[in-house]
Specification:
This protein is mainly alpha-helical. Helix content is 63%, strand content 6%. The protein is globular, with a radius of gyration of 28 Å. It binds one RNA strand through α9, α10, α12, α15 and α18.
RNA sequence: GGGCUCGUAGCCUAGCACGGAUUAAGGUGUCAGCCUUCGGAGCUGAAGAUCGAGGGUUCAAAUCCCUCCGGGCCCGCCA
């Protein structure tokens, strides 16, 4: 599906640019001509690349698309039909979308990500919800029309309602206007998203939109639109959790240009790498066990890598970075957890009333303080949308436990009482580490 | 052009919202140790940073304010 998308968009883009070039030539617009030629060159080289990679697909799509003299017009027409709810268009688009979503779900299932509910954006178009939003905005003093299209004057809202401070905008930050719909009557994404957001607030007090950083402006305009519609309480409870995009060394990821690495590839590669590692470290394990361990180590490493860094930081993708099990702490923390489990297994007892006062070593105190801080850390992580704090916490706890493990004997402690107390401490650490890992979706294994 | 965002040892990252116990923390890499103890995907130690640059506020700044530099993003009848 991704390949079809990439090739199609490439062919259509070249067609479009060629038409622009023709127009520029006729109009003797030198600047436009140079620009168009430059872009055509770029896309032609992408086309050559794609043709080499997928020759059969490329040929098939080229001949199909060339049957249309103006493929873009056809796309427009289809979109129009879809929004108008014409059965054929609906059936076609939903069928293709379903295929995409199916693949999406399949991939996410590999990392145990599930979704409570799914919504079709187009449902908001077919119902009255998007139109309601448009009507409400049009009746406000913040919308003006130009040549039949309506534009939302976000800056005017900010001025009128004095929102600069509230939104954390600097004095010289003028919010650009937002176009609300196309001339042909079809809807635009942000307008649909306003309707969708209002709907979300019917089901929740707080809405966190997890959307890439490049949509910061659009999300800001969405929030301002809520204020303009008199939903200031919603606006204040709407959070845009922005994350930075991953770039590839040399160029940015772009599915339209075929420059991307799929999540499936990353997962497969990670599990493969983990398998090699397990085989090297524990050659005596059965094939089945090795596969099992490779699975949770590889997937754990990927999940840890995703949650480990502040999402606002720019990240450069390299296989080395994602698959380096030395740098990535997931296998380390998992290993530490398995170690704690191993001690508990060997201890063969669960002391009922351990004498905690015997835990007087500095290391033991530190561990106890760390454990005690777990709830507060979790609250802070959720309060400020910082999942990386949980990953960090698990890592620090593992560090401290490993130091403790190395310095102080648990089972072979000087006295039975001290041993009991340390077993209880180990158990507590194991439970908290297990919980911390679970919170970030990483398996806490008993053996590995 | 305007706006937003990131900039911490060779590399990767934490700390910045709430300025002070920070002699700036961890990982990786480099170097030196631990292979007689509960799992070595481990532990101990060393070297490595004028916290992008410059001003300002303050008794005190990685943290707050201003200016500048560098990377990324946005300013569409795309999403």
């Amino acid at each position: 599906m991704g390949k079809i998308y990439t090739v199609t968009s490439c062919i259509v883009e070249i067609n479009r640019l060629k038409r622009i070039r023709e127009a520029a030539t006729l109009a003797h617009a030198a600047d436009d001509l140079v620009k168009a030629n430059k872009e055509i060159d770029e896309w032609m080289s992408i086309a050559a690349e794609l043709k080499g990679k997928y020759p059969v697909l490329f040929e098939a799509l080229t001949s199909q698309i060339s049957q249309d003299e103006n493929p873009e017009e056809e796309i427009k027409r289809l979109n129009c039909a879809y929004e108008n709810g014409e059965p054929n268009a609906k059936q076609l688009i939903r069928e293709v979308s379903d295929l995409c979503l199916e693949g999406f779900r399949e991939t996410m299932k590999r990392v145990a990500v599930t979704y409570d509910s799914w919504d079709w954006e187009s449902d908001f178009v077919w119902s009255t919800q998007v139109n309601d939003v448009l009507a409400k905005l049009k009746s406000s003093p913040f919308v003006n029309s130009e040549k039949g299209v309506f534009a939302f004057d976000a800056e005017k809202v900010v001025q009128t309602l004095d929102l600069k401070g509230k939104l954390g905008l600097s004095e010289n930050n003028e919010v650009p206007p937002l176009t609300l719909g196309r001339a042909d009557g079809t809807t635009l994404y942000i307008t649909r998203d306003i309707a969708y957001t209002l709907w979300k607030f019917k089901h929740a007090k707080k809405v966190i939109n997890v959307i890439g950083m490049e949509q910061s402006l659009a999300q800001l305009q969405l929030k301002i639109a809520l204020y303009a519609m008199g939903c200031s309480e919603y606006a204040e409870n709407l959070v845009h959790f922005a994350y930075n995009l991953v770039t590839l060394p040399g160029y940015k990821m772009s599915s339209r240009r075929g420059h991307y690495i799929t999540f499936d590839d990353v997962l497969t590669e990670a599990v493969q790498r983990a398998y090699e590692e397990v085989t090297k470290r524990s050659p005596l394990l059965s094939e089945e066990e090795k596969r099992k361990i490779a699975d949770f180590v590889g997937l754990g490493a990927v999940r840890y890598a995703l949650v480990d860094v502040d999402p606002s930081k720019p990240v450069m993708f390299t296989w080395e970075r994602v698959l380096n099990f030395e740098t990535n702490s997931a296998p380390y923390v998992q290993y530490t957890h398995a170690r704690a489990c191993s001690i508990l297994r060997k201890a063969e007892r669960e002391p009922e009333t351990p004498a905690f006062e015997l835990l007087t070593e500095k290391l033991e105190r530190e561990l106890i303080m760390n454990l005690a801080g777990f709830p507060d850390m979790f609250i802070e992580a959720t309060e400020y949308y910082k999942p990386n704090m949980i990953a960090d916490y698990a890592n620090v706890l593992a560090d401290k436990f490993n130091t403790f493990y190395n310095a102080l004997p648990v089972i072979k402690a000087d006295s039975q009482e001290l041993s009991d107390a340390r077993i209880a401490l180990t158990r507590a650490i194991q439970i908290v580490m297990h919980n911390a890992l679970n919170l970030i979706g990483v398996v806490a294994p008993e053996k590995m």
